[in-house]
Structure formats: C-alpha cells, structure tokens
Sequence to fold (261 residues):
Amino acid sequence: MKKISPKIVRADFNDLTAVVHYTRAAHTLGLWASERILLDRYFPDKNAQLLEAGCGAGRVAVALWEMGYRHLHAFDFAEELLAQAQSLCIERKVRITLFHVDAIHLAACSILSDIRFDGVLFMFNGLMQIPLRRNRRRALRQLAAVCRPGATFLFTTHDRDSSPTEQALWRLEARRWARGRQDPVLREFGDRYYEEAGIGRTFMHLPDRAEILADLVATGWQHEHDVMRRAVAAESRSVRDFSDDCRFWVAKKFAPSPSHG
Ligand SMILES: C[S@@+](CC[C@H](N)C(=O)[O-])C[C@H]1O[C@@H](n2cnc3c(N)ncnc32)[C@H](O)[C@@H]1O
Fold:
C-alpha cells in the first residue's frame, strides 16, 4: 500500500469531486465570520502586500479583494483549482496575481523574487495537508523568506486536544501506533486520510498545540496569538457544514532586535 505523498494529495485536490466542492464554496460561501473578524483585526492596512498560500478555487483571495485589499498574490499546487480561481477572478473583475507552485518549493518561484510581503495567509488547514513535519517546516521557512520582518501570518489547523472526544480518539490512535497497527498509508502520528461524499479523499495532519508552537519557533516565526474558531464567532450553518471547528494561529516574522546584531 502506497504511503501518502504530495503527489497523492495534489491528485486528490485536482479530482473533479474536490474541484466542484471548493469551487462552489468560492462562489457561494465566501469568508467565514471568524476569518473576517481576524482579517480586520490583524490586517488593517488595505494597501498591504498579501500572499495567500493554498488559495484553491479563490474563496479567500476573491473575498480579500472584495474587502478592499488591492495588492494580492495567491498560489496553489492544484492546477484544476487554480483554473477555477482564475475564472472567478475574471467573472468578478478581480485583479489578483495567481500562480502555480508547491508551498515547499516557493523559493524557486521567480514571480516572488522582488516582493517582500507584509502578510501571509494559509487558510482552512492547507498547511496541514502537506505530508511530513519536515515538509511543513520547509513551507513555513519559505513563507517566512518571502516576507519582511514583522510581517503577519494567519493560518489554521485542527487541534487533537480540542475536546474530550478528540482526546479519547487520539489516545486510541496512539495505542494503534504503539503496536504498529495504524493505517499503513499514514506517515506520522496525527495524520488522517479519509473520504467523504461530495468532498473526495482528504489527507490532513492534526497537530497538538505544542507541535505548532515548536514549528513556528524553528522556522522564523514568533507566535502572537491562537484561538479556537468557536471562540471568535458563531458560524452559520453553511460554514459549519463546509468546515469543522479549527484553531486560528497568528504569528509574526521574526525581526531581530538591534542587540541581536
Ligand atoms: C482545504 S483547501 C482550502 C482552499 C481554500 N483556501 C479555501 O479555504 O477554500 C487547502 C488548499 O491548500 C492547497 N495545498 C495543499 N498543499 C499545498 C502545497 N504543498 N502547496 C500549495 N498548495 C497546497 C490545496 O490544493 C487546497 O487548495
């Protein structure tokens, strides 16, 4: 049985079922109430240079334009989703620089060579859909590299400890891993690979809070804030149907103080 790889994850996102799912959300759902609140709070400058990683069919990127942000770059590694984002931009007369790249190969992207972003977004758990922690750290490092010191990073993850039920499920999963009885396609404890009607196959790594805090420090980011979505806003039924609760993270690109040389 094949282990989960970036190639498998990308193929799943390019699959028609996933493309229809994310395109529908881009056209009809738009921003979650919680996303809008945090964007207003942490990205007050509409003239900021913003980069959206894992933009999919454009749900967030197009909404950012409609909120008044005017300097937007967005990328995804799934060509079919990116084509949908492109069509939506044309339809809504939105100007966003869209490009195709894998977040773990961002450094090789010539479009970004002259820009230092004021902010980066990786919404709806996209970062956690990169298999292997070393690759997620690589993406975090490369996102930091295209930002100016002090730039703001907003992203989401699940949280294995978010409820007593989750904790109980993960205790059982830990026992499976200890006995070598985990799903053989998985790479690391915390991984899940599952299929849902109308969405298709999904790979997701579910971290605990300590893991993300350590990854931020290791990759040039300073943790600023984190909060579960339910504590930010009560989402509509359609948002809750589209997405489970998650943890929002806000970090700043590390800016060495003069005493650090
Ligand atoms: C859950 S979807 C969210 C899409 C969109 N941001 C939204 O909120 O509707 C995660 C997105 O991240 C993208 N993604 C996952 N891994 C990626 C990677 N390594 N590089 C670039 N994009 C990636 C997927 O193709 C997908 O579009």
Summary: The domain at 22-166+208-253 is CATH 3.40.50.150 (Rossmann fold). The pocket of S-adenosylmethionine is lined by residues 13, 22, 25, 54-56, 59-60, 76-78, 81, 102-104, 123-126, 129-130 (CB under 6 Å). The mean pLDDT is 96. The longest helix spans residues 164-178.
